[in-house]
Amino acid sequence: xxxxxxxxxxxxxxxxxxxxxxxxxxxxxxxxxxxxxxxxxxxxxxxxxxxxxxxxxxxxxxxxxxxxxxxxxxxxxxxxxxxxxxxxxxxxxxxxxxxxxxxxxxxxxxxxxxxxxxxxxxxxxxxxxxxxxxxxxxxxxxxxxxxxx
Length: 149
Description:
This protein is of the alpha+beta class. The protein has a single domain, classed as Beta Polymerase, domain 2. The protein is built from 4 helices and 6 strands. A 4-stranded mixed sheet has the order 1-6-5-2, sandwiched between helices. The protein has a two-stranded antiparallel sheet with strand order 3-4. Helix 2 packs across helix 3 (91-107), helix 2 (75-89) packs across helix 4 and helix 3 (91-107) packs antiparallel against helix 4 (111-136). The chain is globular, with a radius of gyration of 16 Å. The mean pLDDT is 85.
């Protein structure tokens, strides 16, 4: 996202009808992607609803990225898009979030610790994003994943 401080890693969200590890592991593995170990693939609770996800790392030697498979109708998929769109729309929030992440990354070497400390700040930003969504009538662009997804 232009103007947002971030690590050199692209995060891609792929919405699927439902998580099926066997069906989704095979094609990504065939092109060199590797399923990330737990806790990357944990079930998250978003909006009080358990949401499964799978996260894949790029082929060895490829540009850093994470491919997140999430169920398209789940609240975690909505949250990802809401967070993105809110930060695109609110430049002061984007600057503050970027500054927070830079300072946190400079003081934390372990990804797990970084995520644990970032989580409460994410909840605060999400509350602001939800207010923005209500004020602007923001909704997720409806896209139905293909039946084979």
